[in-house]
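Hi F.,

I've been meaning to write this up properly since the lab meeting, where we talked about keeping a consistent format for the predictions we share between groups. The idea is simple: the sequence comes first, exactly as it goes in, then the structure tokens exactly as they come out, then a line or two of notes. No screenshots and no reformatting. I'm using this chain as the first example so we have something concrete to point to.
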Amino acid sequence: MLGLVGGERVGWQGHVIVCGLPDVGLRIVEQLALSGVPAVVVDDDPAPALARMLAAWGVPLVTGPARAEETLMSAGLAEAVAVICAQDNDLSALETALLARRLRAEVRVVAQLTNPAVGRAVKEAGVAVLDVAGLSAPSVVEVCLGEGVQELSLSGMRFLAARTTAPSAATLRELYGALAPVAVVPPAGDVLVCPGRDTEVSAGDEVTLIGTPDELAAADIIDHPERIRRLAANLGWTVHRVVIENDVYPNGKPKGASAWKRREIRTPSGKIELRVIRPKFREVLDDLEAGRVNSVLCETSTG
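Output, unedited:
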């Protein structure tokens, strides 16, 4: 059964028909509205909250199955400049795209398809394919290549993107097993984005990998602060802060103590000795004395 929400059909021409309202569809409609491009949305079961958003933007909503000829014609296919099929499953998007192409061969049709093989096939039928994952990949890689460990939430699960240095020449699979490689940055040359696990890397190449905290810790890739947070979480503790002393690198590997970090102190026995200055440890002791924390968890680094 067809329905119309938020407008009259009079004057519908030069508009874009967007099929599928949730997720990508809604973002497309929002950008069209902000750009002043008229749009008509088709959705067979729109969520009330999303329907109210469309009404606020002044975007008409046709309720009905986009895969039906009657629905597309009711959305003004005859005068539309484009049809975007953004349904949340490939079958619906594919059927809608092919139907729009059959009903009006000259209209531009864009379909969101997650299956690469299907996408290649429909391109031959004159349907442009919206590859959301491919478009977003450069942005994801840019975030993951930031300094330190980057945190990601995927389907409610916590993942980390961490950078490490390849210890020897080998494939990514041989070095890191099932961890997902995001990028390889050689000392000289271009960044290799989303390499396969069988990609050969050289000793010294920087490799960014995604995995769960447990997976990265098992591979000894996760950095020092994250290891501490994991250990505290296992104990049921709340972390106030993670302190890295001045004689270790952020990944927990020790630096060589240099002379300027040492000073002469007098021990309780009266003996004069050289000791490494540890200002961060002093801060931890101050936190304990002030009652800001009630426990300290330490990890000893060895070279």
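Notes:
The chain has ten helices and 16 strands.
The mean pLDDT is 78.

If this format works for you, I'll send the rest the same way.

G.
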